[in-house]
Structures are given as C-alpha cells and as structure tokens.
Write a structure and sequence with these properties.
Layout (H helix, E strand, L loop, with lengths): L1 H60 L4 E8 L3 E7 L2 E8 L2 E8 L3 E4 L6 E10 L2 E6 L1
Parallel strand pairs: 5-7
Antiparallel strand pairs: 1-6, 2-3, 3-4, 6-7
Length: about 140
C-alpha cells in the first residue's frame, strides 16, 4: 500500500506541476509571437521611412542625382507597392494583414523583392520621378 501511495503522490505532484507549467508556456509563446510581430512592423516602418525620405531627397536634387543604400525587408512582407507618391508594404501578422505606408513628394517607379533579407538599392532621380533598382 505504501508503494502505491508514493506513486499516486508522484502523479499528483507531476499533474500540479504541469497545471502550472503549461499556462506559463502558452503565455510566453503568445508574448513571443506578439514581440515578433511588433519587431517586424517596426522594421517595415523603418524601411518605408528610409525609402521615402531618400526618394524625397534625391528628387529634390533633380536628375542625375543618385544614392545607394541598404534596406532590410522583414519576414512576412506579402507585397511592396509604389503608388502615386506613396511607398507601401503589405505585412502579414498574427492579427491579419496590415499596410505600412509613407507619402512622398515624388512618384516612385521600380520594384523591390518581397522576400526577406538585406538589399542594396539604388535610388536615382529621373525627369519627373524617382527610380528604385536593386543592385
């Protein structure tokens, strides 16, 4: 009888430990996912702001002004668009899809890959627009 009581006590101790540990693991995982999303959004905002400000600077100097910069495309970017005087990243997060965008004074043409990574980008002032190319 003593052996079965010890075994039962061990099972109770393990069950109580698991009841404490599992909610903590779930909570930590949710915090990690939220941090990861916030980090990707911040990286996307930084990149969009950098592209917009450099495009504005180069456009204001006029043709043939050019600058080469490094940009970071974060994980989760579904698309990059250059609309009418706007830079926009479409980013997938746990909460859904969000758009990170910035207005510019110049029309921007060109395209950037949406796959994550660091890219060297040439921003060149043309007549009436700014051209972006990956080098």
């Amino acid at each position: 009888m003593a052996k079965s009581q010890v075994a039962t006590e061990y099972l109770v101790i393990i069950a109580v430990g698991m009841m404490i540990l599992i909610p903590m693991i779930v909570h930590l995982n949710e915090m990690y996912v939220a941090y990861k999303d916030e980090s990707r959004i911040a990286s996307a905002k930084t990149t969009v702001n950098k592209i917009a400000s450099l495009s504005n600077f180069i456009y204001s100097q006029g043709s043939p002004a050019k600058v080469v910069t490094r940009i970071y495309i974060p994980e989760g970017v579904e698309g990059i668009e250059f609309g009418s005087k706007e830079v926009s990243f479409r980013l997938r997060t746990k909460a859904g899809v969000i758009d990170v965008s910035e207005d510019t004074i110049a029309e921007i043409r060109g395209n950037l890959p949406s796959s994550p990574g660091v890219y060297n980008v040439a921003i060149i002032a043309e007549e009436g627009f700014v051209n972006l190319t990956v080098i």
